[in-house]
Amino acid sequence: MKRLVVLISGNGSNLQAILDACANGELNARVVAVISNKADAFGLTRARRANVPAMVKTKPRAQDRRVYDAELAELVAQFEPDFVILAGWMRILSSAFLDKFPNRVINLHPALPDTFPGTHAIERAFDAFQRGEISHTGVMVHLVPDEGVDSGPVLTQEIVPIEKDDTLESLETRIHQVEHRLLVNTLKGLETGD
Questions:
Q1: How many other C-beta atoms can be found within 10 angstroms of the C-beta atom of residue 150?
Q2: Which domains does the chain have, with CATH numbers?
Q3: Of 101, 133, 168, 172, which has the fewest Cβ atoms less than 10 A away?
Q4: How far is CA 156 from CA 49, 67, 74, 174, 187, in A?
C-alpha cells in the first residue's frame, strides 16, 4: 500500500478525491499526512475529518525559501512517503525539497503541457478562448524533477473542450471534475511501481 503525503494550499477538493478513493478501495494507498502552507486552508478540515494528520507549515516572510523547503522536506520525510502529491500547492518548490524525493513528487495542473503554466491557468485559458485563440484546455499530472513551473515529465493528460456557452465557473467545474478523476487514475497507475 503506497504512502502518500499531500501538500495543499486551499480548498482541498483534489485531496478529497484521493481520500475518497483510498477509503472506498479504488486506490491501494493511504494518505499519511496533509500539510498546508496556509492555516485557513479548508483541506486541513477535510484531512482531520478523515483522521489524517493535518499540519500547517507557513513560510515566514523573512525566511529564505530554500531554508523553508529544507524544513518542509524534513517534516514530509518523517512520514516516509512513497509519493508527495501537490494538490493545489501554491508554492514553487526548490531543489532543497525536490532532491529529497527524486521522481516521487507529483503535481496536478489545470492546463495541458506547455500551456498556461503557473497560477490562474483556468482563467487565462478562458480568456484565450474568448479571444478565439484556443478551442480547448485540459488537465495534466506530471512529475516535478526541478524548479521548472508545471514543466516536468507528463504522466497523464486529458483535453477539456471549452463550450461556447461556458462561463468561467462552468469551465472551472468541468476541469475540477477531470482533475479528481485523472489524479486518482494516475495514482492507480503508480501502485504497481516501486
A1: 21
A2: 2-108+138-159+179-190 (3.40.50.170)
A3: 133
A4: 29, 32, 29, 17, 10
pLDDT along the chain (194 residues), means of 10: 96 97 96 97 97 96 96 98 96 96 96 95 97 97 93 96 96 96 94 58
- Which residue of the set 109, 120, 176, 180 is catalytic? 109
pLDDT of residue 191: 72
Q: What is the pTM of this model?
A: 0.95
Exposed/middle/buried for residue 1 (C-beta within 10 Å: 0-12, 13-18, 19+) = exposed
CA distance 186 to 106: 10
State CA 36 to chain mean position distance: 12
Question: Could you give the CA distance from residue 116 to residue 68 in angstroms, rounded to a whole number?
Answer: 27
Is 109 an active-site residue?
yes
Q: Please say whether the beta carbons of 7 and 36 come within 8 A.
A: yes
Contact 112, 150 (CB under 8 A): no
Report the C-alpha gap between 121 and 115 in whole angstroms.
Answer: 8
